[in-house]
Amino acid sequence: MNKFRHQPRKGPLAEINVVPYIDVMLVLLVIFMVTAPLLSQGIKVNLPQAQAKTITPSQEPLIVSVDQAGNFYLNTAAYPGNALNEIQLSQEISQQLQAAQQEKRTRQVFIKGDKNINYGKIVSAMVLLQKAGAIDIGLITEAPDQHTTHTT
């Protein structure tokens, strides 16, 4: 008698072919890799370098950019590429923070200042943000060896 005799399988064999799913995942990965750099809004500034851990915001933060000429920009303004004066910036920030407060949520606020700008302009932006109701204000920097954005 043969001990290793195989008996025929009973019932259907259910196997899932995962190759098409892997193909779809790779296509989605490529799409996200291509579109992610295009999603960053704001003004091009030369960021200072600092060692800091990366913070991932839960929603789009308010980012005040200060360019080398000392102009203020707000990423969530109607026209993010147009410079705002101090009064316009304060009003925009105040409106957006009040709207977030009415919805019982917090908005993260960051300042992205050019490394060659006078430090007084950064302090001025911080004062405007505090007067508008921002409590926790972060500074956006660039890692020394990398070109990724970090916040402190």
Topology:
Layout: H1 19-35, E1 62-66, E2 72-74, H2 86-102, E3 109-113, H3 119-132, E4 137-142, E5 149-151
Parallel strand pairs: 1-3, 3-4
Antiparallel strand pairs: 1-2, 4-5
Give the count of helical stretches.
3
> How many angstroms does the end-to-end distance come to?
76 Å
Oligomer: single chain
Mean pLDDT rating: 77
Query: Whole-number radius of gyration?
Result: 25 Å
Helix content: 25-40%
Folded structure, characterized:
- With 152 residues, this protein is an alpha/beta fold.
- The chain is elongated, with a radius of gyration of 25 Å.
- It contains three helices and five strands; from the N terminus they run αββαβαββ.
- A five-stranded mixed beta sheet has the order 2-1-3-4-5, with helices on one face.
- α2 crosses α3.
- β1 and β2 form a beta hairpin.
- The longest helix has 17 residues, at 19-35.
Give a quick set of tags describing it.
3 helices, alpha/beta, 32% helix, 152 residues
Task: Describe the structure in brief.
By secondary structure, the chain is an alpha/beta fold. Helix content is 32%, strand content 14%.
